Amino acid sequence: MAEAAEFQGTVSAAACRWFRHIALVLTGLLLVMGLVQLPTAPAAHAESGGSRTVGVSIDSVTPVAPTQNDTITVSGTVTNNGGSTVTDAHVGLRVGSQLTNRSDIDDLAVRSAFSPGTDGSEIGGHTQKIDNLPPGVSRDFSISLPAKDLDLGKDGVYQLGVSLSGQSSEQSYERVMGIQRTLLPWQPSAIEGKKTQLTVLWPLMSTTRLTARTESDQQQTPIFPHDDLAAELAPGGRLQQLVALGKNLPITWVIDPDLLATVEAMTKSYRIDGPDGKTVPGKGQAVAKQWLSQLQTAVAGDQVVALPFGDPDLASLAHHGKDVPGTLSHLQSATELAATTVDTILGVKPRTDFTWPYEGAVDSSIIDVATSAGAHNVIARSDSFRESRTSYTPTAARQIGGGNTAIVADDRLSAAFQGDMVRADDSSLAVQRFLAQSLLVNKQAPDDERSIVVAPQRMPTASQAQAMAAALGGLTDGRWTQPVELGDAAKAKPDPAANQQVPGTGAYPESLRKQELGTEAFEEIQKTQETLDAFKVILTSQDRVVTPFGSAIMREMSNSWRGDARGAAEFRNAVQSYLYQLKGQVQLIPKSDATLSGRSATIPVTVRNGLLQPISGLRLVLESSRPNRLKVGEAQQVRIDGGHNQSVKFETTANANGPVQVTARLYTDDGQPYGDPMTFTVHVTSITPMVLIVIVGGVLLLILAGLRIYIQRKRSAAGGTDAGGAPTGTGPDNDSPGGPDSPAPDTGSESTDPSGSGEKVDR
Question: 292 to each of 227, 243, 262, 491, how far by Cα in Å?
Answer without folding.
Answer: 17, 10, 11, 31
